[in-house]
């Protein structure tokens, strides 16, 4: 089972991924999470990626393809995996297809979360994340239990499971979002046309409350299996 979780910044990829992981029993591979971990660890890769990410640009194809290649080689990917935030350019798509073909595999399923651009600013600017786990919260749409009726702050926004403080991503600004959306439409959307003819693309209206979006994803992946 090789699946791509597709959609613009703020579509809900990271929010829905844990439920898909649980249902299919295969891991989520998020290039964004991997890159943020590299930045936090201060590795060579992290240093190269940091500035580009902060401004909402795309990290080079070679860098992310190598990250994915190394990650796919790990044992827990033997039964399949869910790609979140990858591929993002046609070049990455070609490299992914070639890499999978070598192993006699191919992309079996694309879940494409559809959300109009206008909705994404509020989602992105209100997002808080738990760095360690990648769990996403929202001040209005998905508040942590700790918030209650208080104002969102580092003291009131705490992870439900660990109680650790949440934080805001450096690229979650209106300005960086503008570049991220431009890149998405110019570089990433064409990937859907590439997989369309194989009949593996399932578009889902993700401009609805999270449980409704999940119900549609669950129906799609259950039907497929
Ligand atoms: P990445 O981490 O992949 O970011 P992204 O694609 O911009 O996507 P997001 O993580 O912002 O959105 P999401 O869909 O996961 O939203 P979430 O579920 O959190 O990449 C970051 C950067 O790394 C890139 O800009 C680039 O620089 C680099 N990079 C990564 N991969 C790369 C690649 N392959 N090639 C080159 N560069 C790469 O939800 C968002 C918010 O909305 C949350 O607050 C959530 O609570 C809320 N929410 C979710 N669903 C709903 C709903 N249904 N209703 C209301 N609110 C909702
Ligand atoms: Zn994400």
Automatic annotation (TrEMBL):
Keywords: Kinase, Nucleotide-binding, Transferase. Residues 127-171 form the Adenylate kinase active site lid domain. SUPFAM superfamilies: Microbial and mitochondrial ADK, insert 'zinc finger' domain (SSF57774), P-loop containing nucleoside triphosphate hydrolases (SSF52540). Transmembrane segments: none annotated. GO terms for molecular function: AMP kinase activity; ATP binding. InterPro entries: Adenyl_kin_sub, Adenylat/UMP-CMP_kin, Adenylat_kinase_CS, Adenylate_kinase_lid-dom, ADK_active_lid_dom_sf, P-loop_NTPase. Belongs to the adenylate kinase family. This is Adenylate kinase active site lid domain-containing protein. It comes from Chrysochromulina tobinii.
